Amino acid sequence: MLFGGKTLADPLRQQAGSWEGAQSILIGIAANKSIAERRPIRVRGLLEGEGVWSGAHS
């Protein structure tokens, strides 16, 4: 658990781990970039270095 230091029961085993958190962040970056550039963005492209920040800070 990120905050509080106390582990909560997860009987359905649905608690997200660090991998799911990283995926969530990448999806958010792709969504924001897609909206800003008005075009589809591939998450794989972000991972392969196709300009995560291009356009946002130019």
Describe the structure.
By secondary structure, the protein is mostly helical. It has a domain of 30 residues. The chain is built from 2 helices and no strands. The N and C termini lie far apart (37 Å). The mean pLDDT is 80.
Defining key terms:
58 residues; 0% strand; mainly alpha; 2 helices
Topology at a glance:
Blueprint: H1 18-37, H2 43-47
Tell me the overall shape: elongated
Report the helical percentage. Answer: 40-55%
- Proportion in β-strands: under 5%
Elements, N to C (H/E): HH
Determine Rg (CA atoms, Å). 16 Å
The unreliable regions are none
From the N-terminal CA to the C-terminal CA, the straight-line distance is 37 Å
Biggest pleated-sheet summary? none
Structural class: mainly alpha
Mean pLDDT across residues: 80
Total number of strands: 0
Helical element count?
A: 2
Summarize the structure.
This protein is mainly α and 58 residues long. The chain has a domain of 30 residues.
